[in-house]
Specification:
heterotrimer, A alpha+beta, B alpha+beta, C alpha+beta, A: alpha+beta, three-stranded antiparallel sheet, about 40% helix, C: four-stranded antiparallel sheet, two-stranded antiparallel sheet
Chain lengths: ~160, ~325, ~200
Amino acid sequence: MTERGTSTALSYVLTLSIATLLVSGLLFAGSTFVEDSREQVIRQELQVIGEHLASNVEQVERYANATDIVRSASIEQTFPSRVTGSTYDVTLSGGGGDPRLYLNATKPAVSVRIDLDSSSRIRNNADAYADGGTIAIRCEGGGSDDCGGIVIENV
Amino acid sequence: MADLRPRDERGQILLIAAFTLAVIFVALALVVNSAIFTENLASQGEVAGSSEALTYQHQVRQSVTEAMAYANRYRYSNPTSSVQASVDALSEQGAHQQATGGQLVHVGYEGSRSGWRIADNTSGGSTFENESVPVSDQNWQLAESVDRTRDLEITITDESVLSGTKASAFTLEANESTSEIWELRLWSTGGEVVVDVETASGRSGECRVPTGSPVEIDVTRGLVDGQRCHALTRNGTGGDRMWWGTGVSSPYDIWIKNGDQIRGNYSMILRGGSHTGDGLVDGPDSGDDPFRTDAMYSATVEYLFRTSQVTYETEIEVAPGETP
Amino acid sequence: MSGRRGGTDERGQGHTLEAVAAAFLLVASVSFALQMTAVTPLSASTSSQHLENQLRYTGAGVMASVEARGGLSRAIRYWDESDARFHDAPDGGYYTMDPPDNAFGRALNRTLDERNIAYNVHLVYEGASGDRARTRLLYRGEPSDHAVRASRTVTIMDRDPLIDADGTENGTQTVSNASTYFLPDADTGGPVHNVVRVEVVAWRI
């Protein structure tokens, strides 16, 4: 019937497989691109949230340094509970070494570290962590009239 | 018929690919949205009211300072009740004002430290002599065993009375023993008034202002005619500490030497100590000699600042004009 | 024959259905993809937020630096008793084109006027009947939509003297005994005369 040198089945298979290869290659590249972009955006967003938290920590530090007697000092701020679809948590650590803020997104696993001004008030408290959402930075401990340390927690 | 089929299959694959690409575009849209939201979040300033908590605390300090100055000047017989009334009034009105901005503030009087005030406010100025000390010896003790001094102000109304040399200049000293003396000397070179300071460790410095109008020296604040004087604060950047009483441990005595070599007014508020009895009369209406009254040295107020996101509760001690 | 006819009919219907479904799918996916442009917000507004923040802090900074030398309190007491208005104020009782000739006015002029920033200054205090009263100190016009406000609270005590036009303290008139002074005594029994909040509203022209 046909004058072509190839058979119908062969052309069928060739067309299908080439088309499938091209299309799946395109889809794979597309999804990888989206994943990469997502990771970058998550990193940026965690960085921004971390900077906001760092400025809140330093503001509470300023409250504590302004007077001798501090009965209570706290700042709370509401952040989005998810960054680009991924949940995250924040850890405030310090005391022994330089105080730092760690922000970790769960999926994809992205971690951002913000260094804080070295200060003696930020305690090395393994429990000083908070999930994304409304986060409060608070003065705690050190007797009833003193700001012993600064901790981070969910409200 | 046989030719049609491959084209059909190709079309379906293209459709599926197009649909999946559309889903990818929507996922990209989520990512782009998050990026734009991040930029928005980054441009947000601080939490509303967080720095206001500190700036309003400063304003409260200034208001309490004015209340104390008023009480020490006009209600010296009972400064505590005057300051208490002032603090209540300014707390109520301040709360009313700040409430319109969504901020809850409260200031409460907690306590105070009493002290006493020595002043000479003769209009036109007078020499810093002690009337009951013989004229030939104008060195006399103003106060003895003082813990702290604040708001020490000297105003020179007539520069022509100032000594022309440093050796015979008017001297105000804080003196604990022969080795711990802080001295302030005021003399004039004809065209300039020299403010000369020597601390207990031997460091010295001076500031000069041109003669002409009355010179106001705020010793404990470190100002001469409203400008910072390094000889009263710190010699050069990172230099030696020169503030009133540096190197002199409390309690110390305050002496005036060569009191006839200056003409003006002075005022100071002291904590602890007493006057030696000669030359100081009680109350400002008793004559032009330096007089003493009771005064409030420092006040402690409770300060509370609260918004929906910020909480700040503290106690402030206000002692205006104290050396840092 | 019937089988073939049935086969051709079904194939024709099948093809049509396929084509319709394919077209529908195509259109749906295109419109689905186009929705992403409708959801993204305009990003141009974030740049003006920084400018507004900066303007607010500039206003607060001007007032803080003036008040460090007592300039705000003196500006509130810069009152002409005989004229019943601020010194050299035009007929409305508040300044318009020129700021007052005291430290506060000069600071505002230096900081804001030279940067093409228009501003109004309001004084908020407790009125004679206990309510909140508001007076204009300086008014340049209706603020734009992007105006910001910075405020600072100043306490005036009962025996604070009025300030003369040259900046010196008046020897006889105080805020309590000056009969035309705009600020009433909010606490008649106590030493505090009134607590005034100075508001500076600023916007870029």
